[in-house]
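[Automated response] Your request has been received and processed.

Submitted sequence:
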Amino acid sequence: MKNSLKIGTATLFLFMIFSVSAMPFVASAEIQPGTLKTKAGLVPCGNKPGDTEQCDFNDLLALGMNLIKYLVLLSIPLAAISFAWAGFLYLSSGGSEEQAKKAKKIFWQVLTGFLFVITAWLIVYTLTSLLKTDFSLLK
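Generated structure:
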């Protein structure tokens, strides 16, 4: 009985965390004006039947930016859920060294992965910003 209560409470807690963390996806479902391309979808060109527009280098850059943007938006709630789970494990360890070490390991792995994702976004954003303008090191 106690074990099923713990499982039910943990399931409800994870569902609530997921529901709250999914709200930004629902709220920002439209494309913002002034972005690189204003067409919907990951591929900004040729995504409609009968569309004769040819893809160019800027469309390739937009695709890279769109992919990274979606991956970052996906990683934020996943990281939040993982941090919450690590915190829950740490708080419920009850003096168990093994459980506390497991929680700390999860925390550091999630932090390392999230920093990796943010660093990848920064690199891609910087490179695409430099490539889509007339940037030159010789000027």
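Summary generated for your ticket: The helical segments are 2-21, 23-27, 57-91, 97-131. The chain has a mean pLDDT of 75.
If you did not submit this request, please reply to this message.
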